[in-house]
Amino acid sequence: MTDGKSFVEIRHAQKSFGKLEVLKDISLSVDRGQIVGIIGSSGSGKSTLLRAINDLDPLTGGEVWLDGVRVNQTLPHRAYEKHINQMRQQVGMVFQHFNLFPHMTARENVSMAPIMLKGISKDEANALAEAQLDHVGMLERIDYYPSQLSGGQKQRVAIARALAMQPKLMLFDEATSALDPELVEEVNQVMRKLAEQHMTMIIVTHEMDFAASVCDRVLFMDQGVVVEEGPPEILFKTPSQPRTREFLRKHLESAK
Questions:
Q1: 20 to 30 A Cα–Cα from 201, which one of 7, 140, 169, 210?
Q2: Using an 8 Å Cβ cutoff, are 200 and 34 in contact?
Q3: 219 burial type by CB count under 10 A (0-12 exposed, 13-18 middle, 19+ buried)
Q4: How does DSSP classify residue 140?
Q5: Per-residue CA distances from 56 to 16, 49, 50, 71, 166 (Å)
């Protein structure tokens, strides 16, 4: 068990792909209800760190804890499968690409996991799907197929699908980076709504303005390490590390 102070705790996370060390001894904690943003250049280890939280990218070394339970336990195969399935039901994850089932409507995409993993009835799952699609502003398109939806609408369905499992933690991995610019804000609005409801979230993003307006803390990663972290009003305005200042300067220049 952990000491009970941190809702999410990552201890000395290390991840290597062969000789390439992607995460280098990262430790961080997230309190319940806190929103943490992760920024950095492509290849800095942001997505790998996020995927390690629910063991989609198992760590080479280190520990991940969620609400007092270690996620990445070493167990016999069947015991591990049962354990990790239980842990993943508590963690909603939204990827850059929507990963919706094309042959299923929005309703079916959202209701499937609660039926299969939680064993609830189809009627209960349909009611849950309606509630979550309403939550993200997609109730009017509940019986639309992904091919009939815009990118922003698909991503909102993906968020509803994650929320339907009633997770304790939401992970967003560049959720808006595949969207056309005019569709980004509709997804950001859903994430802002979750923030107002005090959902614990870890958000990998390239949108500095969004991170500044939503996150309680922001981490800057570079070459597999957390270079600097702090409240957005400090990290974005008066970063202490040269690598952070250089990254933000380049980002501002590219945004012009």
A1: 140
A2: yes
A3: buried
A4: G
A5: 14, 10, 9, 11, 19
